[in-house]
Design brief:
With 314 residues, this protein is of the alpha+beta class. It has two domains: 6-100, OB fold (Dihydrolipoamide Acetyltransferase, E2P) (Beta Barrel), CATH 2.40.50.140; 107-312, Hypothetical protein af1432 (Orthogonal Bundle). Helices cover 37% and strands 19% of the residues. The protein is built from nine helices and seven strands, in the order βββαββαααααββααα. A five-stranded mixed barrel has the order 1-2-3-5-4. It has a two-stranded antiparallel ribbon with strand order 6-7. The radius of gyration is 23 Å and the shape is elongated. The termini are far apart.
């Protein structure tokens, strides 16, 4: 029997008779009854290499109380072969906490290099020269926790759960950049488009539009939770990312940012998904209209690449 070393263990490398001590994502949890009438626990565990079933026939209800489906779990047990399939005979399973609960090991991640995207973001922020807006961006991007959250957050949860959906299924304009790092990738794309658009239309308020492009989706950093799946947080469900983003901005507004400039920026954020007919909200500035179009352009293109093009779905 080979020794269990977590750094070497994955679903793909597990072998019969191997002792398991590792963190996995729990994607299924069921309490079932055996033929003898006793309860047992069945869970499905996943990592980047695949999935495996695990079962606990002893103290099933006690073990079930230590975690929920959708969480990262610390698993201990032994790999057994059952009907020509490997499964884990559980001796312990509980919610994983702290550094071991690293969602980047289990969730889809941006293909693009996040350090490179971070560099682009800093470059774009340096293109803002208005004193108040520049100080606002420095305050936001200088917050280490927020900066880390920008690198981590997606723009939406993957459609259909961990496995996603087939191309073309459940297509939505809001389903794009549905992976860790997606927010940073989208923000850089929209801000880059804004910079280029200002060269074509010099009447646009360049500093306002670039700042709005950088901060328009900041609320996404508070909209999701991360475990076995990307899910909406409670505040994300109740308030939405626009309100959450406005709160983040408000907490960093510098004294030198004039009220008129602040209102113009907040207006861009509020209507970046388009005007709200229910409240009679309309585009009040060219910059708000431009941000809406640029945001939609990147979101729709990325969504089409991820979910498929209607004309090509057959």
């Amino acid at each position: 029997m080979r020794p269990a070393k977590e750094r070497d263990q994955s679903v793909a490398t597990l072998r019969a008779a191997e002792e398991v001590d590792c963190v996995f994502a729990c994607t299924r949890k069921e309490r079932q009854i055996s033929r003898a009438g006793t309860p047992y626990l069945t869970v499905e565990l996943r990592d980047a290499t695949g999935t495996i079933l695990a079962r606990a026939f002893r103290e099933a209800d006690v073990l079930a109380g230590g975690f929920e489906r959708g969480e990262l779990v610390r698993v201990r047990g032994r790999v057994e072969r059952f009907r020509d399939q490997l499964q884990i005979d559980l001796s312990a399973i509980a919610r994983a906490d702290g550094p071991e609960a690293d969602p980047t090991r289990f969730l889809p991640v941006a293909y693009r290099d996040l350090d490179e995207l971070d560099g682009f973001l800093e470059h774009l922020a340096r293109e803002v020269y208005d004193g108040g807006l520049k100080t606002l961006l420095e305050g936001l991007l200088g917050d280490e926790r927020l900066r880390a959250d920008i690198r981590l957050a997606p723009c939406s949860a993957p459609a259909g759960g961990p496995g996603g959906r087939p191309a073309g299924a459940g297509r939505s304009a809001s389903s794009h950049h549905a992976y860790l790092g997606g927010l940073l990738e989208h923000t850089v794309a929209v801000a880059t488009l804004a910079l280029e658009l200002c060269a074509l239309h010099p009447r646009l308020d360049r500093d306002l539009l670039i700042t709005a492009a950088i901060v328009h989706d900041l609320g996404k950093t508070r909209e999701f939770t991360y475990g076995a799946e990307i899910r909406q947080s409670r505040e994300g469900r109740l308030l939405g990312h626009i309100e959450l983003g406005l709160r983040l901005i408000a907490a960093r507004v510098p004294a030198e940012l004039q009220e008129e400039r602040r209102l113009a920026l907040e207006h861009c954020v509020i209507v970046h998904h388009g005007p709200d007919a229910a409240s009679a909200q309309r585009f009040a500035t060219a910059e708000a209209l431009a941000l809406y179009r640029l945001n939609a352009l990147d979101a729709h293109l990325k969504g089409a690449f991820e979910l498929g093009f209607p004309a090509l779905d057959g």
